[in-house]
């Protein structure tokens, strides 16, 4: 049986080789064009970062306002001039937004590719910030170093989520706030595409454990999946956060449902005849992304 350290090394190496480029295939810097051949970008260039941002923003349109990208979930104004930590910076899109809104941003990632690319982004865009390689289970900062902490789609890849959350709250000052996005094990995407389509219809559940099935058909599914992804449930989150947090709020975002529903209901124009309110209700209960926010309890 693999040790936790071995699993962590495989996670770090996998993400370094297949970073979150938001390309047509996970880890590739190739993007589908409306017309003509796919567009390929060179990592570390302004063209690459602009393409990453354009794609990532388009996947999360309901979360943006005139106040900024992701401003429906991120309190940029409240933490202008304050110490903010990102766990899992990827290609640096979110860290860039926080820096642009005046936060003193520190961003970490387990894999070196993300660190190098985020540093390059900050240099190209002329932004201040501290970016370094670090393990979310053992962060290299004194306790109570940050006023706000966030992580987007990262900690469900941790082989010890409870330990990672302990580090999250060790980092926060008393009353400090947080926002964390984790995949939802009670989502339509998980229940239909992973459990039903792959697990049942394609019989993958006969040879894969639940963890292996989730890892195989989430990030990097085009290339046989990633080493470790375990989506969570609302009740699990409340148990995990209870010792640390107050004012806990958990809501499903559901920005992916416009892609999932046509697969479930393969009828022409399904998005037009399915009432908007019905889609929004499904998104609030069965969305793939759970947004967890609150404050440190002590």
What is this structure, in a nutshell?
This protein has eleven helices and nine strands. It has 298 residues and is of the alpha/beta class. Strands 5-4-3-6-7-9-8 form a seven-stranded mixed β-sheet, with helices on both faces. The protein has a two-stranded antiparallel ribbon with strand order 1-2.
Structural overview:
- This protein has 298 residues and is α/β, with parallel strands linked by helices.
- It has a single domain (4-181, 230-256, 292-296), classed as Vaccinia Virus protein VP39 (Rossmann fold, 3-Layer(aba) Sandwich).
- It is 38% helix and 18% strand.
- It contains eleven helices and nine strands.
- The strands form two sheets. Strands 5-4-3-6-7-9-8 form a seven-stranded mixed sheet, with helices on both faces. A two-stranded antiparallel ribbon has the order 1-2.
- α4 (112-125) links the parallel β4 and β5 (130-133).
- It starts with a helix and ends with a strand.
- The mean pLDDT is 91.
Key words describing this protein structure:
two-stranded antiparallel ribbon, 11 helices, globular
């Amino acid at each position: 049986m693999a040790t936790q350290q071995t699993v962590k090394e495989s996670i770090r190496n996998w993400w370094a080789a297949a970073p979150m480029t938001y390309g047509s295939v996970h880890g590739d810097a190739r993007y589908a064009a409306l017309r003509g051949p796919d567009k390929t970008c060179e990592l570390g260039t302004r063209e690459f970062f602009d393409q990453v941002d354009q794609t990532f923003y388009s996947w999360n349109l309901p979360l943006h306002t005139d106040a900024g990208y992701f401003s429906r979930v991120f309190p940029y104004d409240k933490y202008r001039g304050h110490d903010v930590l990102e766990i899992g910076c990827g290609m640096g899109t979110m860290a860039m937004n926080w820096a642009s809104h005046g936060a003193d941003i520190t961003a970490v990632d387990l894999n070196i590719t993300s660190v190098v690319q985020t540093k390059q982004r900050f240099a190209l865009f002329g932004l201040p910030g501290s970016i370094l390689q670090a393990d979310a289970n053992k962060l290299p900062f004194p306790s109570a170093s940050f006023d706000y902490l966030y992580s987007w789609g990262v900690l469900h890849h941790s082989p010890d989520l409870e330990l990672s959350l302990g580090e999250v709250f060790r980092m926060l000052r008393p009353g400090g706030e947080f926002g964390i996005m984790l995949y939802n094990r009670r989502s339509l995407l998980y229940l239909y595409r992973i459990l039903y389509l792959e697990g049942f219809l394609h019989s993958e559940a006969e040879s894969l454990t639940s963890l292996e099935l989730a890892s195989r058909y989430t990030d990097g599914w085009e290339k046989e999946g990633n080493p470790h992804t375990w989506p969570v449930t609302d009740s699990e989150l409340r148990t995990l956060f209870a010792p640390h947090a107050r004012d806990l709020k958990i809501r499903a975002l559901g920005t992916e449902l416009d892609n999932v529903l046509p697969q479930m209901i393969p009828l022409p124009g399904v998005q037009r005849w399915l009432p908007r309110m019905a889609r929004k209700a499904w998104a609030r209960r069965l969305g793939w992304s759970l947004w967890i926010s609150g404050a440190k309890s002590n």
